[in-house]
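Weekly modeling sync, notes
Attendees: S.R. (lead), two postdocs, one rotation student

Agenda item 3: backlog of single-chain predictions. S.R. asked that every request posted to the team notebook include the full sequence so nobody has to chase files. The rotation student volunteered to paste the first one in as an example of the format we agreed on. Action items at the bottom.

Example entry:
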Amino acid sequence: MQDRYVGDIGDFGKYGLLRSLAADLSLGVVWYLVPDESHTNDGKDIRYLQPTLKNLTTFRDCDTDLYDMLGGIVRDSARSVKSVHERGVLPAGTVSYDDRLTYQGMPGIGPDAKDARLAHRRLWVGRALAATPDCKIVFLDPDNGIECRTTQRHEKRGPKYVYFDDVQAYLTRGQSVVIYHHFNYGSTPISQTHTLFARLNERLVGHQQMSALRYHRGSTRAFVVIPTPDHAPSLTRGVQRFMASPWSQHFSSVTPPDRPPAIPLAEGRIPANDTPVGSDRAGATSSKPARRWPSLLDVFGRPSYLRPRNEGW
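Predicted structure, as returned to the notebook:
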């Protein structure tokens, strides 16, 4: 997470989902906050806040209070996670851990540098755990997503990822976890989500069967919901409530391939589909076979604000 993302179209969907999931359960947010960068246009897609009729019906109708609060933060040039907490964007009582995770100013070469960075990260993770012991749900908000095989945690880009043992620490003490994850262009989002389910199930214990919610606005991303047995009924209700609302035009539910979708699409609605013809869409909520002709984005490339930040698996 970076402060400059606050209020953009991706942030809007994130807070909308958390407000629904945490309706019955206390929430903690571990931001995995890294310093703002300037080499990409990430965070600049705030056009949804322009008060056009289309924006008001497409976005504001999803959550009027949320839309207006984020609009105020953007207008006031107060885009930071601190503003999100102070202005009540998330439910009352939400715990916010916003210490920055960065290796700036630390040596980067040699075994001593590696050990120092790993120790620094362990302390940061420990403080995050100490800040959130009473939260039923903990949302982990890394800049890129769940760990990939090309980035080790002590490397420069390590703070942009949440690692499996980070997640397990919360599950072990009985907390459910929701994780933000950005996709790459190596394969379809559905295929990547199923791979992610397999990797998480292989590495994590103490949870019920997980699911994910794909957000179709801006660059492709998902929110992985990992419930503990005690919280599974409440989180299922939260997802059902969310997908029965106007938010369903922006999200689709993805479940593991061996599990039928729990949340069917509204009659006649097709989610944004970026899956090539003939791809396996098992576990995705879709009412028609996947088929799509090449778009201008395929031919000419995507603008920078639509490019995923994740490096790959």
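Discussion: group reviewed the output briefly. The chain has one domain: 3-306.
Action items: rotation student to repeat for the remaining queue; S.R. to check formatting next week.
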